[in-house]
Amino acid sequence: MIKWFIEHFPEYVTKMRECSYHYENRVFNLHHLEGDVWSHTVMAYNLGIKHKVKKTILWAILLHDLGRVFTRKVDSENSKVIFGDFEGVSSFVALEILKKANVPENEIIEIIKIISFQYTIIDHIKYNDPSFDELSKMFIYEENLLKDLFEYVRCDLFGRIIDESKIEYYDIDRVDQSIKKINQISKNKKIKSTKKNILYILVGPPCSRKSSWVNRKSKEFITINRDSCDEEIGKKYGKHSYDEAYDFVKENPDVEKEADELYEAKREFAKNSKNKNIIIDNPNLMLSNRKKWITPFLDTHTIKVIVFLDSLENIVKCSKKRSIEINKYIDEKLIINKLKTFYFPLYSEGIDEIKYIFNKEEYLL
After folding, report:
1. Distances (CA, A) of 173 to 24, 34, 79, 124
2. Which of 213, 249, 212 is nearest to 231 (CA)?
3. Which of 229, 262, 321, 359 lies 20 to 30 A from 139 at CA?
4. Residues 159-178 pLDDT 10s
5. pLDDT at 362
6. Where are the beta strands (DSSP E) in the chain?
């Protein structure tokens, strides 16, 4: 696997080698004395081989830190390097690689889930936050994923060189005990919802084909979309493309207030439509975004989440193509910032069904 990756994606290997954890090679990251992302990846990968983890976990180990290449920033004031929330970026970059490797879609979902939730488990090991009980509730109906995450984290946490001053955060016994506890917990089965009406929550970054999916659905659905509010208000002032409308709204506080009020009115209309089917056509990448919609409809609607999966490379190509066709453009930096907020949907959020849609179209200009 690692030989295949080196052969087919040498540019990523080079970027990972150049992506240092240290500040100007004089202020060291004491959690990563091995120095760079590629060295850590190889060390963690070799531990995965040693522990004979399954293939999906090995893929997650190999690709888990790719996002750092895109999010690395130098904080000169504090003499350190920061990466921010890179896990969502890693997930969407990994899609490009996994697709080329012909990994089955069900396995791709497992892999990017592991990548997405890596720090949830690392924080548990280091700080007991969340606690094991909280983890059990978070991953209810997905106990196999929780086990995979601990198997993954065992390799990630100890596939590095740690300074002695930080060794207290790396407790291998705690990891092993957690794996034993997971093997003992009961697997829960999700009961199918019988509620007649449906609330669809679409999850995906810009240019992941959410609106194309909406256009194929019945017009009987109430559709809520924040961008359409900007466009509607923009047209009122003679701005007939999305980019013109968006810029005009953002540059004029009073106009932006109009767009906000229009969106809030549509939100309230939807929330009061308890006997209607509803589609939320926004990115909904964050847990808090989804919660705002799930909570009001828990008792009246079957909550279905559709996750749109496409590689960062394809999303950027789509944005360029869309810019030419309909004058609606989002640059790569903004897309990456969006992906940094991505929190993979879990059933514990109150979701009844989760479906994944992989984009089959290549956006070649």
Report:
1. 35, 23, 34, 13
2. 249
3. 359
4. 999 999 999 999 999 999 99
5. 47
6. 73-75, 80-82, 197-203, 222-224, 278-280, 301-309, 353-358
- Can you state the angle between helices 37-50 and 143-158, rounded to 10 degrees? 120
User: How sure is the predictor about 360, in pLDDT bands with cuts at 50, 70 and 90?
Assistant: low
**pLDDT value at position 363?**
38
How far apart, in Å, are the Cα atoms of 330 and each of 82, 244, 312? 24, 13, 12
Q: Which residues touch 361 (CB under 8 Å, ≥6 apart)? A: 209, 314
- In this structure, what are the phi and psi dihedrals at residue 199, rounded to the nearest 5 degrees? -110, 110
pLDDT band at 364 (very low <50, low <70, confident <90, very high): very low
Prediction pTM value: 0.91
Q: Collect contacts of 24-33 with beta carbons under 8 A, ≥24 apart.
A: 24/79, 27/79, 27/80, 28/163, 29/80, 29/81, 30/162, 30/163, 30/165, 30/166, 31/160, 31/162, 31/163, 31/166, 31/169, 32/160, 32/161, 33/160, 33/161, 33/162, 33/163
The whole-angstrom separation of Cα 86 and Cα 72 is: 9
Sequence-ordered alpha helix ranges (H) in 101-171: 105-116, 118-127, 132-138, 143-158
Using CA of residue 51, residue 53, residue 55, residue 59, what is the dihedral sign? negative
Structure tokens at 85: 């929330």
Average pLDDT, the chain: 93
pLDDT at 120 over 80: yes
